[in-house]
Design goal:
heterodimer, A: about 130 residues, alpha/beta, Transcription Regulator spoIIAA, five-stranded mixed β-sheet, 4 helices, B: about 300 residues, Globin-like, 2 domains, about 70% helix, elongated, disordered N terminus
């Protein structure tokens, strides 16, 4: 456990917490396209700094996930993998999931889990047990 | 016949209606008891409304008769329409058929027409004018009662369809984190949508990781159904649950391949038992017979 929120240059509506070799990014409120881009840069940077092996993005607060948002998430997944970390998206609401498949938006290349707890369990599986201290 | 004569004829009929209707209404009012008696007698003879008791038939007949006369008198069908709807609501659950309702209204029309014949049969001219006044109104009433009945029936059918839909998509937990969804009956667009919604809610409520959807009871799986299943699977995956489809019959499998539906992303196994076994493997359960463990 590394402690409180890291200082952000300006409020990003996303808090990125470090927990062992994992990063946990919680989105607090709807992000516009610009915020999604900033979030992506911020997170990729932090993965390198912390040498994170796994990242969880919690989108439970989002009541819509549009094509730009999901593309950003997919890109994030690929970038993170290039830097040696797995990304798991957790907390997609039922209504959001339903709307996404209706509009043909998918996260096929990404891991998804029900919530934070499930996400952590899945990360343990993916990264090999015992990677958390 | 020239156009002048036609106009004159029409005017006469119009005038006759206004003049004769009150007389007609008075006649029907005076002979209320006797005509109602004749009518219920003919209903019983024709073995209509066999689902109802004679007392019920008599009391409904009285109301219909009075409403009928009122329509002739005032020209306003509101009260009768309201009554017809109310009556339909009461008798539909008891199995009264559309043709019965149409028949009894036509019987009343016939009874009343006969009584008019009887009254005016000496004066053919007058009888014609009376019938000119009576027929359109009577037809309108018969038409309206039948339509009300059919509308009410359709409403009942819609309600029942809704109820069947609600009942027919249970989301059941069979093990910790394992849900099954046995689908029985036709899977159309609205139902597929509702099913997906229920499943997604169930996944969150039970924290499910694996879902087995059994479609043994779906009679016809076409391209549309297959695509909606793919959407259900995708949406479940977004919520972290994997889906196993079971019960695809050989005919259906062949149809889907012929039509060219891509189900490569779907995890399908033969029947529900295999599906549950596969799900248990995913979840790390193992079912073993007690005998085998003891040995």
């Amino acid at each position: 456990m590394s402690g409180a929120d890291p200082p952000l240059r300006e409020p990003l509506r996303v808090s990125i917490l470090a927990q062992g070799v994992y990063l946990i990014a919680s989105i607090h409120a709807a992000l516009d396209d610009e915020h999604f881009e900033r979030f992506q840069h911020e997170l990729v940077e932090r993965i390198g700094q912390r040498r994170a092996r796994g990242v969880i993005i919690d989108v439970a607060a989002l009541d819509v996930l549009d094509s730009f948002g999901s593309r950003t998430l997919r890109d994030l997944g690929q970038v993170a993998r290039l830097r040696g970390a797995e990304i798991i998206v957790v907390g997609i609401q039922a209504e959001v999931a339903f709307a996404m498949v209706k509009f043909g938006i998918n996260l096929d290349t990404m891991h998804t889990a029900l919530d934070l707890e499930e996400g952590l369990a899945l990360l343990d599986q993916l990264c090999g047990a015992g990677v958390r201290q | 016949m020239t156009s002048d004569e036609t106009d004159e004829g029409a005017q006469q009929t119009g005038g006759a209606r206004e003049e004769l209707l009150p007389e007609l209404v008075a006649h029907l009012g005076e002979n209320r008891e006797q005509l109602r008696e004749q009518w219920t007698g003919r209903i019983t003879d024709a073995q209509l409304l066999s689902a109802m008791t004679p007392e019920e038939i008599f009391s409904e007949a009285t109301s219909i008769y009075d409403n009928y006369v009122e329509v002739l008198e005032t020209g306003s069908t509101d009260a009768l329409q309201h009554y017809a709807r109310d009556l339909s609501e009461r008798i539909i659950p008891r199995g009264v058929e559309t043709e019965e309702v149409v028949s009894i209204v036509l019987l009343l029309r016939d009874v009343l027409a006969r009584s008019l014949f009887e009254k005016y049969h000496q004066d053919f001219e007058l009888l014609n004018r009376v019938l000119d006044a009576y027929e359109p109104a009577a037809n309108r009433i018969a038409n309206m009662v039948a339509v009300s009945f059919v509308q009410e029936r359709e409403r009942v059918i819609r309600d029942q369809q809704e109820a069947i839909r609600e009942l027919s998509t249970p989301v059941l937990q069979v093990r910790e984190r394992l849900l099954i969804l046995p689908i029985i009956g036709i899977l159309d667009g609205p139902r597929a949508r509702q099913l997906t919604e229920q499943l997604l809610k169930g996944i969150r409520a039970h924290r499910a990781k694996v879902v087995v959807i059994d479609i043994t009871g779906v009679p016809d799986v076409d391209e549309g159904v297959a695509n909606s299943l793919v959407q259900t699977v995708d949406a479940s995956k977004l919520m972290g649950a994997s889906v196993i489809i079971t019960g695809l019959s050989s005919e259906i499998a062949e149809t889907l391949v012929t039509v060219g539906v891509d189900l490569s992303k779907m995890d399908t196994v033969g029947d529900l038992q295999e599906g549950i076994e596969a799900a248990e493997r995913l979840l790390g359960f193992q079912s073993v017979r007690i005998d085998d463990v003891r040995r």
